[in-house]
Amino acid sequence: MQSRLFILMLITAITGAILPIQAGINAKLGKVSGGAVMAAFISFLVGTVFLAAYLLLTRKHTIQWNGIQSAPLWLFAGGIIGAFYVAIITFIIPTLGTALTFALIIAGQLLAAMVIDHYGWLGMSVQEISAGRIIGAILLIAGVILIRKY
Considering the entire predicted model, what is its pTM? Predict the structure, then answer.
């Protein structure tokens, strides 16, 4: 169990490490394609083509039409949120730089995640905000301030 947890944590860290690379690539793409929104569109288009090819080649996944048809509309907001995120990051990163941009993103993610966990929103298990979590968030915000200052 511990080795599985370690592998999942490692994969998560690697996934986090590729996000600044994606943002930098998209920022460059924005400069040559007509702006941040165009770069985000191209990024999502390429990602959609890649996922479609994967689904067609593996044939491991089938669409659950009944589940999709009965899903509340708000479940489809992830695509809008993803497009907004990629477009904003593509626009902001050339000005703020990679480290400050992602320090702020991580701080925002952590604060939102703590609230979601505390209330069990989106079907998550409840993880109440504790003194340790608050101290961790404060340290992260202090890190943002230090990155901005230096």
Answer: 0.84
